[in-house]
């Protein structure tokens, strides 16, 4: 018997298989009808999603060496008391190259066209959760039943005992699957009333197989958080590749991806972000080890890179580097014209280190901004360098400032162990401020005041133009807390030049949630000492200050230009005294008693007051040599004592002693800084100059002149009629007495006896 060749055997075998398979396909095509397959599909879908209703308009299939199934108009809804849409699919196509599969190859094509997915959140659960709820219960029941059955003894199977073992049909071992999802629309509505839309133009999985490299692509449009201040729109592109067979062969899988976000629009952004890209290499093993190497690009610049490693819930972000160009980043959120910072484009925020993520977050980072930021406000320019680091115990910040030919450095220490509990009960932030070698002039301060005034004028003008309404007083917003985190600030001042006067000492500040305290320690201005204490607390929703301040031999001339205009303008001298009171919102009350020595009051022309008064006396006044009276405002003593509030400044004592002791002014009265009521100060002008005093005594009969100063606010002018009325009787009496004496002298000449007769007549 002749032996058949191997080739003939193979050909005969192949022919037999083809005939059998062809016959089987022919029989299946005759037995299976589209309506039967349609019912089978609907039954399977409703079993998978038990609380749902499935409808489809058409199903068509063809069986052969290139088999295909076309399903059209699939509509799945949640079938509860009310119907809610789940998903609808316009067309689903499945192509199976059976001939290629038999001979160890071929590609299965799955095309899903125009699916629409709806996700709706209710007060409890969602449409999808409710649709799947029954299925979950069934699984639980089945699990309980099966758990009660006694386990059968089976022989150990090495393949089955392998962890995560997968049985792969030999028919598909060398096959590949291409999946295409086109024009997917996802509409969502959340229980917090936010909603949005995600449009996926295409989602592609190419060459999905156990022994091939799988590539994927996702192209989508996002329109999320509608009807909220964070309404965001962007385009998304995700591409990548992976060899899935590594999961079975090497017990690990590597995924290379590139995520690109384009045309990002958000109300918080001044302009559209054209491109943000994330490149990553992700490696994950069956043992649970995770490794992600990534880089982030903004436009065309790399802004961050690092490595994420994870094992059994412990995640470490290491080799972290961030480099942000401040000018580029700031341009997306801030209008450069409204901030006082000048950015050249070289300034960068740099950060390096690592972060342990888990139950406890432990960042170990160092960061800085270089070169120095230039900040301009009016006539003041500041160059600032920021650096800092995080440790297991908290955060350290250092801000070095160069300004006014000196330095102002701020060291800030924040203690925390980075747990949520430590942030809920934060320990006080410690801030140490070191100020030295500054040179501050009144001109700089005046410049700042004018700048602020102009800005306020512009704001008021804009506000009036916008509202076009009458100005109304607005109530201050209630204060609920002074600080979210307690603060302790210590300010050390050395060698600060205030218009030639040297300032040194310390200022201490303690701030809590509902109270704060400010105090000075050893604060010296030249040879004078300044002590300030202020206790701040929240009262009736407003800030209340209970303050007291004392001055000892403080030269006020050094403060001219550094306090609100008009407060002590034109006033100098060594000041000793104290003030105490309280401030609640915009209302204040204070008691003050200050005594100035050897100074000058240049804004009040006392000489004109006196000369003007003498001129009002007419011919009598002309006999008084007022030209010899020189009052230039210099004083030996100036004392002011009284109480002050929003409506009235009550002066209990006003005392002015000229430096040469030729004039003394004393008195009291009330000044009304606001409102229609006129202010009045009643004072006595006492002329102590020997020659002028003798002349006044001779011509008028007195050297003390009662005066009434009155006018709106602090614009006070003398009422000469009041003074003349007060002194006219004495003047007339004195002049009459002089005339009688003159006549007596003519008649009796030196007759002493007659003089005694008229003695006391005009007293």
Which helices and strands occur, and which strands form pairs?
Blueprint: H1 6-31, H2 34-48, E1 52-55, E2 58-62, E3 67-79, E4 83-96, H3 98-102, E5 107-120, H4 127-148, H5 158-161, E6 176-189, E7 195-208, E8 213-226, E9 232-243, H6 245-249, E10 252-265, E11 273-285, E12 290-298, E13 301-311, E14 314-325, H7 326-330, E15 341-342, E16 348-357, E17 362-377, E18 380-391, E19 394-403, E20 406-415, H8 420-424, E21 429-436, E22 439-440, H9 442-467, E23 487-498, E24 501-511, E25 515-525, E26 528-539, E27 542-555, E28 571-584, E29 587-601, H10 606-615, H11 619-622, E30 634-645, E31 649-658, E32 663-671, E33 679-687, H12 690-699, E34 704-711, E35 717-718, H13 720-748, H14 752-758
Parallel strand pairs: 5-6, 21-23, 22-23
Antiparallel strand pairs: 1-3, 2-3, 3-4, 4-5, 6-7, 7-8, 8-9, 9-10, 10-11, 11-12, 12-13, 13-14, 14-16, 15-17, 16-17, 17-18, 18-19, 19-20, 20-21, 23-24, 24-25, 25-26, 26-27, 27-28, 28-29, 29-30, 30-31, 31-32, 32-33, 33-34, 34-35
**Annotation field: number of helices:** 14
Overall spatial form: elongated
Strand content: over 45%
Report the radius of gyration as a whole number of Å. 47 Å
Mean pLDDT: 78
Describe the structure.
The structure is a single chain. This protein has 763 residues and is α+β, with helices and mostly antiparallel strands. 23% of the residues lie in helices and 49% in strands. It contains 14 helices and 35 strands. It has a 35-stranded mixed sheet that branches. The model is unreliable at 135-172 and 461-474 (pLDDT under 50).
């Amino acid at each position: 018997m002749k032996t058949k060749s191997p080739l003939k055997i193979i050909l005969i075998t192949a022919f037999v298989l083809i005939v059998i398979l062809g016959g089987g396909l022919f029989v299946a095509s005759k037995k299976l009808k589209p309506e039967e397959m349609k019912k089978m599909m609907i039954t399977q879908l409703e079993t998978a999603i038990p609380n749902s209703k499935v409808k489809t308009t058409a199903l068509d299939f063809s069986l052969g060496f290139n088999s295909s199934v076309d399903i059209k108009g699939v509509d799945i809804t949640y079938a509860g008391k009310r119907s809610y849409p789940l998903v609808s699919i316009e067309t689903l196509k499945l192509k199976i190259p059976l001939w290629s599969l038999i001979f160890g190859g071929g590609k299965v094509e799955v095309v899903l066209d125009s699916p629409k997915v709806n996700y709706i959140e209710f007060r409890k659960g969602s449409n999808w959760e409710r649709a799947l709820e029954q299925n979950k219960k069934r699984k639980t029941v089945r699990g309980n039943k099966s758990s009660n059955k006694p386990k059968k003894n089976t022989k150990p199977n090495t393949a089955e005992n392998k962890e995560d073992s997968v049985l792969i049909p030999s028919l598909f071992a060398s096959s590949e699957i291409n999946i295409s999802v086109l024009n997917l629309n996802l509409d969502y509505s959340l229980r917090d009333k936010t909603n949005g839309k995600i449009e996926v133009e295409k989602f592609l999985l190419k060459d999905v197989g156990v022994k091939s490299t799988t590539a994927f692509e996702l192209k989508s449009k996002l329109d999320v958080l509608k009807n909220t201040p964070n309404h965001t729109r962007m385009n998304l592109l995700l591409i990548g590749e992976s060899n899935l067979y590594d999961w079975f062969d090497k017990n690990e899988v590597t995924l290379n991806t590139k995520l690109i976000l384009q045309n990002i629009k958000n109300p918080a952004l001044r302009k559209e972000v054209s491109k943000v890209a994330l490149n990553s290499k992700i490696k994950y093993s069956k043992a649970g080890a995770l490794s992600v190497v990534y880089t982030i690009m903004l436009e065309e610049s790399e802004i961050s890179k690092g490595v994420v490693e994870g094992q059994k819930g412990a995640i470490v972000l290491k080799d972290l580097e961030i480099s942000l160009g401040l000018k580029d980043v700031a341009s997306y959120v801030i209008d450069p014209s409204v901030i006082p910072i000048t950015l050249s484009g070289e300034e960068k925020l740099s950060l390096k280190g690592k972060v342990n993520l888990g139950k406890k977050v432990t960042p170990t980072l160092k960061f800085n901004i270089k070169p120095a930021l230039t900040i301009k406000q009016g006539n003041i320019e500041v160059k600032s360098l920021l650096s800092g680091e995080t440790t297991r115990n908290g955060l350290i910040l250092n801000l070095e400032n160069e300004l006014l030919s000196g330095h102002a450095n701020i060291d800030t220490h924040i203690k925390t162990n980075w747990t949520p509990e430590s942030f809920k009960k934060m320990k006080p932030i410690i801030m140490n401020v070191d100020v030295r070698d500054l040179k501050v002039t009144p001109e700089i301060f005046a410049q700042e005041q004018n700048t602020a005034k102009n800005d306020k004028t512009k704001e008021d003008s804009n506000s009036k133009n916008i509202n076009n309404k009458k100005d109304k007083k607005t109530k201050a917003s209630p204060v609920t807390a002074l600080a979210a985190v307690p603060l302790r600030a210590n300010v050390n001042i050395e060698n600060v030049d205030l218009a030639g006067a040297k300032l040194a000492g310390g200022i201490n500040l303690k701030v809590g949630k509902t109270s704060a305290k400010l105090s000075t320690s050893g604060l010296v201005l030249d040879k004078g000492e300044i002590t300030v204490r202020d206790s701040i607390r929240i009262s009736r929703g407003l800030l209340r200050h209970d303050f007291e301040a004392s001055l000892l031999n403080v030269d006020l001339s050094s403060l001219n230009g550094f306090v609100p205009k008009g407060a002590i303008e034109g006033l100098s001298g060594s000041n000793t005294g104290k003030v105490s009171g309280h401030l609640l919102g915009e209302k204040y009350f204070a008691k003050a008693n200050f005594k100035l020595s050897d100074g000058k009051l240049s804004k009040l022309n006392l000489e004109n007051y006196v000369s003007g008064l003498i001129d009002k006396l007419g011919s009598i006044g002309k006999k008084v040599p007022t030209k010899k009276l020189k009052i230039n405002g210099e004083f030996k003593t100036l004392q002011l004592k009284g109480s002050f509030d929003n409506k009235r400044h009550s002066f209990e004592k006003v005392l002015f002693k000229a430096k040469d002791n030729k004039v003394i002014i004393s008195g009291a009265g009330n000044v009304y800084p606001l409102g229609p009521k006129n202010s009045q100060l009643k004072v006595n002008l006492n002329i102590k100059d020997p020659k002028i005093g003798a002349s006044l005594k001779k011509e008028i009969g007195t050297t003390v002149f009662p005066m009434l100063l009155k006018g709106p606010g602090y614009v006070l002018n003398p009422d000469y009629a009041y003074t003349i009325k007060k002194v006219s009787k004495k003047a007339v009496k004195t002049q009459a007495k002089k005339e009688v004496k003159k006549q007596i002298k003519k008649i009796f000449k030196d007759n002493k006896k007659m003089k005694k007769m008229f003695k006391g007549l005009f007293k």
